Amino acid sequence: MDELTAELTDLYNEHYSQLLRMAVLLVDDRSAAEDIVQDAFVRVFDSRARLRDRDRALAFLRRSVLNKSRSLLRRRQVSRKYQHRLVQREPGPDESAHGVDRTVLAEAIARLPPRQREAIVLRYYADFSEAYTAKIMKVTPGAVKAYCSRGVTRLSSLLRERV
Amino acid sequence: MTELDTAAPRENSDERLLREGLHTLVRDVEPSPTALSRVLAKRRGRSGSRLVLGLTGVAAAATAALLLVLVLVPDRSPRPVPVGIAPDSYVVRLADGTLASAALETGEVLREFGRVDAEVTALAKGDEHVYAAVAGEGVLRVGPDGTTRRVRGVGRRAEVSAMSAANGRLAVAGGNRVTLVSGNSTRRITLDTGLVVRDLALDRSGRLALVVRDRDGGAPTLRLVPAGRAGSDRIRLFEPACAPLRIAWSSTGLLVLRPRDCAARDAVRLTTIDPRTGGRIGGGVGIRFEGPIGGAGDVRVSTDSADRVLVSTATGKTWLVDGGGVELVAEHCVVGRNCTPVPAAM
């Protein structure tokens, strides 16, 4: 195994699952999410310097997943085939997450404006700081704060409507 | 900058529930067993094709470099300093005449570019400059460093009703004429003398959409000017709707702002149409003003590359439309300052 392949395998082992889950939350579609993350991992090889710098590689992967998720949602909107896949999933026996029904939460997240959804996923799922979330989203930290605040308020009201 | 949020948790119960809910939602999501092998296989395939492309590229670049050295006289002038208007911002003219950019999310002034004392009738935001239509001056191009130049190709006495900038090009409407400026070249599109261009939108490919009205009255209509063409085609809408007020391009089609009720102008609706067929792509969102707006010039719609839409009025109220959500960005154009009655542009 050459050095770069070993580097990529390490990246995969450490971050693939989290990126995949992040993509699922962003696009509601497991197989599309897998394609997005696969593509990001393949493209990270386009620059050897990037792959040798772990922080750059990670930032690239996260931004790539975010950008491709945006493109996918936009294409869906164009073709008017937007469907909330997580919502359509049959509820399993343990769908309760500390009082919030998973299906209801998935539906509420899917109804958020795209930027609020991204900020919520990066801040509250990936646990990124405001500054790092801003870097990945290419917006200001103030904007992230505003997106999160509005997103949480909106989610709370959507969940109260349903619960 | 820390990647992870290491600050002491100050979350409220909603945030805690959300965090737990998100993790629970995807706890069953695991990579497919073949994910790593597929990544490595794709990577090997890509490396091969990249090698061939790389070698071809190197040969082409060497030839091009040789030709450039032979043909061009070396330019020893100082390299231009890269400038750009901040992303996630919109441009306004403050009450003291200063052109400024304001943060899209908070409405706070980010940067002041320079002061224009004469009356400004329209603003447009380009990738690297702000354009201001100034009475008696034509159109001024203002950089983030404050440098101001008059745009050639637009006369000092030109009456400018609307402007739109995209991809280094600027389109200026006045009367029945549209002037397209790109670098040092200027192109003019002239419509029938009985028509007036009320608004226009230029996309990155050079395609132009127009809101056009008869001088003798009659409802405004939409027209499309394909890139590079001088003639315009009328866009015939599928559904009956109120006459368009303002337009802007999005990645999915043409955004059209029109009154919700044709007889009143206190509420508007933003819809997306396919400019080729006139069919509606998106149902859009509605915005209610405090009172009826005056003419089409009192409201403005503009977009950014992320398909966010800014709806602004001459009174200073500014809304951001992001997906299906509408947020009021500023009551009076920007936070803590007053502006002149020129709708902001993104």
Walk me through the structure:
The complex is a heterodimer of chains A (about 160) and B (about 350). Chain A has nine helices and two strands, in the order H-H-H-H-H-E-E-H-H-H-H. In chain A, helix 1 runs antiparallel to helix 2, helix 2 crosses helix 4 and helix 8 packs across helix 9. Chain A is mainly alpha-helical. Chain A has a two-stranded antiparallel ribbon with strand order 1-2. Chain A is about 75% helix and about 0% strand. Chain A folds into two domains: about 80 residues; about 70 residues, Arc Repressor Mutant, subunit A, CATH 1.10.10.10. About 10% of the residues of chain A have low confidence. By secondary structure, chain B is mainly beta. Chain B has a domain of about 240 residues: 7 Propeller (Methylamine Dehydrogenase, Chain H). In chain B, the strands form six sheets. In chain B, strands 4-5-6-7 form a four-stranded antiparallel beta sheet, with no helix packed on it. Chain B has a four-stranded antiparallel beta sheet with strand order 8-9-10-11, with no helix packed on it. Chain B is globular and about 70 Å long. The relative contact order of chain B is 0.10. About 5% of the residues of chain B have low confidence. At the A-B interface, helix 1, helix 2, helix 4, helix 6 and helix 7 of A face helix 1 and helix 2 of B.
